[in-house]
Amino acid sequence: MRISASIGVMKSLAPLRFVLLCACISVAAPALAQTGSIQITARITPSAGMAEPVRGLPLYLLSKSYADIRKEADASVPRPDMDQFIDSLTVSKELKAWMTQHHSVTITGDDFINSLTPDEILGIPEFRNAYLSRNAGDKVGGFPSPKYKESDRTKNPEKYKRAMDDYEAAIHKYLVTNPQTKDGMDIGLDSVDPSHNWQDKVGAREPEIQRLALNLAQSKYHLAQAVTDDFGRAGFTGVQPGTYWLSSLGVEAHVSDTQETWDAPVTVQSGVTTQIDLSNFNAVPPTKRSQ
C-alpha cells in the first residue's frame, strides 16, 4: 500500500517536473540571447602607403572612456599651489603682485610682451630694468636721456627728484608713443624667469596621474582584454547590451611613420555582433593623448 502510494505520488509529480524543466529552458534561452559580441579590426594607413593591420596590440573593453578615467585620476592628484610658489620666489614684491594678479609666472614670449602696459613695465623693477637695458642706449631712436645728477641725490634731493620725475615721465611718453620698443625686453628677464621651475612642478604630477589612470582602467572599469592577431583582428563575446569603450590605454600602435592610439565608443545590442574598425580616422588626436 505504501509503495503504491509512493508510486502514485511520483506519477502525479511527473507532469509538474516536466513543466518546471520547460520553464527552466525558457528562462535560460532568453538569458543567452541577451548578450552580444564585438568584432574588431585594427588597421593603420601610414603617410605614404597602404593600410596595414595592427598586430599584437592589447585592447581593453572598458565601462568608461580612458579619457574620462584620466580626468578622474587627474582630479585625485593634488595640483601645485601657484600662490605658494610665487611667495617662495626671490623677486620684487611688485613682480609677485603682478604674477598673483595675472595668475601666471610666464614672463617671456610674445603674448607676455603684448599684454604689458607702460605702467606695468615702469612700475615693476624687473620689467623696468629689462626695458631700459633694451632701449636706453638707443640714441638713434630718440630714447630719453636722464637729466639728473647722482651728486644731487644728497646735495639737492628736491632737484634730484624733479629730474627723476621728468625722466620717468619722458620714458612713459616714449613707451606709449613707441610700443614696439618693448619687443625683445624679455631677453633681459631670463635670469628671473620662474616658468621653467613651475612647469617642472606641474609636470611632476603626470607620472602619478598616468599610474593611477592605468590602475583604475585595469581594475574598476575593466571588463575584458584581447590582443589583435596577425590580421589585426580581435573580439569579445558574451557582452551585455550597452555602451562601452575600446581602448589601448594610451599605448601607441606603430605602422611605418604613423602612430595611433584608440579610445573608441562601441554599442552592443542583444544577440548582435557589432563590427568596429579601428583606424586613423577614429584614433585619439595627438593633441589629446596626454590629457
Summarize the structure.
The protein has helices at 2-33, 66-76, 82-87, 93-102, 110-115, 118-123, 125-135, 152-155, 157-177, 195-203, 206-218; strands at 36-44, 52-53, 58-62, 222-227, 233-239, 242-247, 253-255, 258-260, 263-268, 273-278. It is of the alpha+beta class. The chain has 3 domains: 1-33; 36-76 and 206-288, Sandwich (Immunoglobulin-like); 82-193, no CATH class.
Task: Please explain how this structure is put together.
The chain has 291 residues and is α+β, with helices and mostly antiparallel strands. It has 3 domains: 1-33; 36-76 and 206-288, Sandwich (Immunoglobulin-like); 82-193, no CATH class. It has helices at residues 2-33, 66-76, 82-87, 93-102, 110-115, 118-123, 125-135, 152-155, 157-177, 195-203, 206-218; strands at 36-44, 52-53, 58-62, 222-227, 233-239, 242-247, 253-255, 258-260, 263-268, 273-278. The strands form 3 sheets. Strands 1, 2, 5 and 10 form a 4-stranded mixed β-sheet that branches. Helix 2 (66-76) crosses helix 11. It is elongated and about 95 Å long. It starts with a helix and ends in a 13-residue tail after the last strand. Residues 1-32 have low confidence and may be disordered.
